[in-house]
Write a structure and sequence with these properties.
2 domains, Tumour Suppressor Smad4, lipid biosynthesis
Length: 307
């Protein structure tokens, strides 16, 4: 019988997984898996357990938000660094944002997501290597970094993109532009920027990312976006409009694809990583781990879109 490790964050999101664990395990069992249920006990528990025991299983499934997914992938990347075989990963999104799941059209219904996992097949995806850590879909700095995560879901539901813009204006008063130089696959850009992101996703912070229509999850390249410091209120309005309408403004934004990005700030720069605090660095190197892991998908329409 095949073995599965089922990693669950019981505190994720609205705890939607809590009353469905038995039903989900039943689905996996009927598909021929001997399931080991592992509820996480601390922030890094998934990474530590997966790196230590991951090779004992034919598949690993994690249930939780973007942070739980990130932590599980960190464990898988630990196996990769040791040269060990990495089992495929199934994902049941249970967080409040679930950016990566939205990008890949993974069902937000935990039971349906479980059914899709047993019917699906492994698909290789890239993983970001951020200094000594990993990320599954985004690292970012600057003014918009935590707006999407701090803006209430109720306000988002009521006002849509307008909620994002309202929060951005509030944020503007306290955030200073970031002075930096970035080497992007050998090309250097420099200046003052309100925001920057390096991503492998179509959704960031619950909103569709700008300029990622034809992105691929497995092409070995990130989608990079840097938003310049506006010189006046009119330019700021143009930036916010571009974000709200998901349209690039090439005069105020710099977009590119890259395998490697090295950023050096005049001062240390705070980052977020997959929606969580990612550390503060004066210099940080980000590289693309091409097809580093495989994620199990039943609906491959979003995955195949950029191929």
């Amino acid at each position: 019988m095949k073995k599965m490790l089922f990693v669950v964050n019981p505190k994720a999101g609205k705890k939607v997984i809590k009353n469905r664990v038995y039903q989900i395990i039943n689905i996996f069992s009927h598909a021929g898996y001997n399931v080991e249920y592992h509820p996480t006990k601390s922030a890094n528990d998934a990474a530590e357990y997966v790196e230590k025991h991951g090779t004992d299983y034919d598949m690993i499934v994690c249930a939780g938000g973007d942070g739980t997914l990130d932590n599980t992938v960190t464990g898988l990347m630990g196996l990769r660094r040791k040269g060990l075989e990495i089992p495929p990963l199934g994902y049941i999104p249970c967080g409040s944002t679930n950016d990566f799941a939205k990008s890949l059209k993974i069902s937000s219904d935990p039971v349906q997501a479980a059914k899709d996992i047993v019917r699906g097949t492994p698909c290789p995806i890239d993983v970001g290597i951020f200094g000594k850590e990993n990320f599954i879909y985004v690292v970012a700095f600057g003014i918009f970094t935590d707006i999407s995560y701090s803006t209430s879901q109720k306000l988002k539901n009521k006002l849509g993109h307008s909620a994002y813009i309202i929060s951005a204006f509030k944020e503007l008063a306290r955030v200073k532009p970031v002075k930096l130089a970035a080497r992007i696959d050998g090309k250097v850009i420099s200046g003052e920027f309100l925001y920057g992101q390096i991503t492998n996703s179509r959704s960031v912070g619950g909103f569709r990312a700008i300029g990622v229509k034809d992105m691929s999850f497995s092409d070995g390249k990130f989608e990079c976006l840097f938003i310049k410091k506006p010189k006046n209120p009119l330019e700021l309005a143009k930036i916010l409009t571009a974000i709200a309408t998901n349209k690039m403004n090439p005069k105020l934004m710099y977009k590119c694809n890259a395998k490697e990005v090295v950023i050096v700030g005049k001062e240390p720069i705070p980052w977020t990583k997959d929606g969580e605090y990612g550390g503060t660095f004066k210099k940080i190197k980000t590289t693309n781990g091409h097809k580093a892991i495989s994620i199990v998908l039943n609906d491959k329409s979003a995955y195949n879109k950029g191929i």
